[in-house]
Amino acid sequence: MPLQVVRRLIPEWGTTYGPPGAGPFPTVMVLHGSEGALSGWSHRNAAILAAHGFLAFPFGYSSGGNAWNAGHIVDCPIDRTVQALAALRDFSFVGPRVGLYGVSRGAEHALLLASLMARDEMLGIPEAIAAHSPPDVVCGGFDARSFRDSGDPGWQSWDGSKRAWTWKGSAEGLLPTSPIEVERYAGPLFLSHGVQDRMWSVEMTRRLERRLQDHGRQPEVHYYEGEDHLPGSEGENRHHELLVAFFERQLS
């Protein structure tokens, strides 16, 4: 039986997952969360998109780590992700429209990348963006070695003394609690959040939605009743139905 999902390497950047054939295919870059690049979750999400006809590129932006340790999100250069996005566009299997999909810290990363590229009027900005469980403000650095479960002494979702992101060599303007200026991005935007999220409050997505509407934007927004930070089986199936439909409309 021929493979329905095949891997293809972008030299110096990493692997992609996509349908068999010569392409070009509608394409999505996938950004992982605080679980890190080596956990496999972003590769699994990429494979799901690939099974539905997309070329998907799980880009690992976290630093350090291994299969047993997530590494950290501290001083991660967002402009390196812009370079990876440009390399993806140059890949021969990639179609003319490229989307961006991030979950949790990856959603934060995606919204920051879009707002910064739009602010600086850069070429190559993604044609569509999906963000699941996003914050509405810049969050602090995260190091998996110091992570504690919610309720444990010393628990914190991020470390406000450390900077998670840099842009063109500086963390200026990316300090924790700074609003993410996603209203600068004029393209189609998909936002989703579990209403019972215990990690990132659903109110963050509600604030993003209101702010976008105040600026004349009409994002596609979905709230999943009864779902936590990551949906369960039924919720995830519904999420992927909506996500795939969004990217099919915007990237085909």
TrEMBL record:
One GO BP annotation of this record: acyl-CoA metabolic process
Provide any one GO MF term from the record: serine-type peptidase activity
- What InterPro entries would the database entry show? AB_hydrolase_fold, Peptidase_S9_cat
This protein's source sits in the domain of life called Bacteria
Residues covered by the Peptidase S9 prolyl oligopeptidase catalytic domain: 158-251
Task: Provide an example Pfam family for this protein.
Answer: Peptidase_S9
Its keywords, alphabetically, are: Hydrolase
Name used for this protein in its record: BAAT / Acyl-CoA thioester hydrolase C terminal
Q: Which organism was this protein described from?
A: Franzmannia pantelleriensis
